[in-house]
Amino acid sequence: MVEDEIKKLAVLLNHWIKHNDDHIKEYMKWADVADRHGLKEVAHNLKAAAEFINRSSEQFSTARKEMPVSPEEEGHEHGHDHHH
Q1: pLDDT 10s digits, 44-84
Q2: Is residue 81 classed exposed, middle or buried when 0-12, 13-18 and 19+ CB atoms within 10 A define those classes?
Q3: Domain span at residue 37?
Q4: DSSP track, 62-78
Q5: Tell me, what's the pLDDT at 3?
Q6: I need a labelling partner for 17 at 20 to 30 A (CA). Which of 10, 40, 65, 71 fits?
Q7: Per the structure, how many domains does the chain have?
């Protein structure tokens, strides 16, 4: 049903934003590690990657604002973990 797909997309947008935020934190943490070890170019590239992810999150946020429904998060598990 179309409404179900729209609700699913609203939920996915929220998940993608959250995952991006988690990834950004991780990239910045490792950029600091690289920086401490004198790997300036590695740190620079990790920070640049974090900025690209942040921009994609801004697009997801804009898309979410245009959605006609708000996601129903209660009891929804999406079943995968990005923390390695």
Answers
A1: 999 999 999 999 999 999 999 999 887 665 444 444 444 44
A2: exposed
A3: 15-64
A4: HHHHH-SS----TT---
A5: 84
A6: 40
A7: 1
Which pair of structure tokens corresponds to residue 42?
A: 């590695």
Please enumerate in sequence order all residues whose Cβ is within 8 A of that of 45, keeping only pairs 6 or more positions apart, or say none: none
Whether the Cβ atoms of residue 61 and residue 17 lie closer than 8 Å to each other? yes
C-alpha torsion 22→23→27→32, nearest 10? 0
> Does residue 1 belong to any structural domain of this protein?
no
- Whether 79 is in a domain gets the answer no
CB 71 within 8 A of CB 10: yes
53 is a domain residue: yes
Q: Tell me the two tokens of residue 21.
A: 């935020």
